[in-house]
């Protein structure tokens, strides 16, 4: 249910969910379906699309042009850069849907750079960082920096890196 404390929804946004935490902002031309759950103090920038079976934690920033499909869970304090791309079907075909969409988990404090592609069915660990333009095809351990195509580990980072 709506926590109406300081929620901002731009008049051009199409928001069907009532599960939005206080102090969240949803900007121009974003579409959020009825089943989505969005935490408090989030910032969902313009031109985003969020499907039904989606969980977004508290203090999450989702920059412009991001689509978050069924089966994706984003924990607290995550940053998703502009035009980052998520998938939820390993073998997509037009008008052919899986019985269950693959689950993708983004853990607390992770950061995903602009234009990164996150292939479905993986977990990105706590405080991990994904470089801009990377293609992530496997699980990322906690606190690691990954980038490239395909993304590979380039060492450990700290929460304040």
Count of alpha/pi helices: 0
Content of β-strand: 25-35%
Cα-based radius of gyration, to the nearest Å: 15 Å
Structural class by sheet pairing and helices: mainly beta
Give the overall shape, derived from the CA principal axes. Answer: globular
What distance separates the N and C termini?
A: 36 Å
Parts with pLDDT < 50 across at least 5 consecutive residues: none
Strand order of the largest sheet: 1-3-6-9-12-15-18-20-21
Order of secondary-structure elements: EEEEEEEEEEEEEEEEEEEEE
Average pLDDT works out at 95
Largest sheet entry: 9 strands, mixed
Q: How many β-strand runs?
A: 21
Percentage of residues assigned to helices: under 10%
Describe the structure in your own words.
The chain is mainly β and 161 residues long. It is 0% helix and 32% strand. The strands form four sheets. A nine-stranded mixed beta sheet has the order 1-3-6-9-12-15-18-20-21, with no helix packed on it. Strands 5-8-11-14-17 form a five-stranded parallel beta sheet, with no helix packed on it. The protein has a four-stranded parallel beta sheet with strand order 2-4-7-10, with no helix packed on it. β20 and β21 form a beta hairpin. The protein is globular. The relative contact order is 0.11.
């Amino acid at each position: 249910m709506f926590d109406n404390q300081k929620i901002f929804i731009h008049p051009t946004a199409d928001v069907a969910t009532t599960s939005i935490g206080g102090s969240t902002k949803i900007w121009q031309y974003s579409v959020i379906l009825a089943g989505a759950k969005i935490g408090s103090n989030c910032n969902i920038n313009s031109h985003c699309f969020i499907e039904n079976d989606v969980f977004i934690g508290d203090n999450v920033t989702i920059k412009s042009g991001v689509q978050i499909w069924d089966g994706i869970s984003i924990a607290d304090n995550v940053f998703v850069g502009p035009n980052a791309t998520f998938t939820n079907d390993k073998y997509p075909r037009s008008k052919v849907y899986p019985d269950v969409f693959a689950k993708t988990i983004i853990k607390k404090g992770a950061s995903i750079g602009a234009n990164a592609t996150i292939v479905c069915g993986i977990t990105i660990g706590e405080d991990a960082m994904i470089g801009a333009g990377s293609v992530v095809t496997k699980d990322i351990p906690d606190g690691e920096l990954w980038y490239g195509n395909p993304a590979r580990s380039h060492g450990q980072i700290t929460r304040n890196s």
